[in-house]
Structure formats: structure tokens, C-alpha cells
């Protein structure tokens, strides 16, 4: 996969780890969200299938709180292999595109009530 990667950190927003059970759904494929910010989301998935590239959308689903945020425009920043509990998986990082005012409001609400801030970080 040919992803643009750089040694320079590109994040400008606080990233927070989320509670278990929060899913990202892209192209009808689910992944477990690792962290999220106002600027993007990272999740892991265990499928070997290649995921689509280009401008896409992602949905955020948190069933425990009946929270669903759909059709967030995204661009893939990176997609690579990782290991989790001895199993091979993939980590995919997405940058949000232009969000509507309602999507921004819902995302801010989600970050406020459903995040687990013990692993949060801010990178310039």
C-alpha cells in the first residue's frame, strides 16, 4: 500500500483512547477504535482484505450508549501491520475531512462523554 508517511508528527488535536466496544465502520467493515480526536481516528482490524483508498466515509458506533455518527468524510493517512495479543492485525489512521456543524457537535459530544482520557496525548 502506498501511503504518504513522514517522520514529522502531523497531529494538532488531543487524541483520546476510547472505551471498549467503540467501532469504526468503513466500507461495511468494522474495526475497533484505538483513539480519536477532532481531527481523525485510528482503529485496528483483523481482515486481510485490502481496504479502499481515496476520499471515503467512516461511521462511529458505540452500542452501549446508543451512539451513532455516520458518514464522516475521511482520507487515509496510514495503514499498516501491527500485533495485538500475539495476533496479527492492521492499524488504520484516518484524517477527517470537512465535517458539517452537526457532525462536529456530535463528535465533540462523543469525545466528552465516551472517552477514556488516561491515555490522551497532545502532539503539535
Account of the 3D structure:
The chain has 124 residues and is mostly beta strands. The chain has one domain: Thrombin, subunit H (Beta Barrel), CATH 2.40.10.220. Helix content is 11%, strand content 53%. The chain contains 1 helix and 8 strands; from the N terminus they run βββββββαβ. Strands 2-3-4-7-6-5 form a 6-stranded antiparallel beta barrel. Strand 6 and strand 7 (87-96) form a beta hairpin. It starts with 14 loop residues before the first strand and ends with a strand.
Query: What would the principal axes of the Cα set say about the shape?
Result: globular
Number of strands: 8
Count of alpha and pi helical runs? 1
Largest sheet: 6 strands, antiparallel, barrel
Q: Which percent range describes the beta-strand content?
A: over 45%
State the strand order across the main sheet. 2-3-4-7-6-5
- Quote the average pLDDT: 80
Q: Low-confidence spans: pLDDT under 50, at least 5 residues?
A: 1-9, 117-124
Terminal Cα separation, in Å?
27 Å
* Helix and strand composition category: mainly beta
Q: What's a concise summary of this model?
A:
With 124 residues, this protein is mainly β.
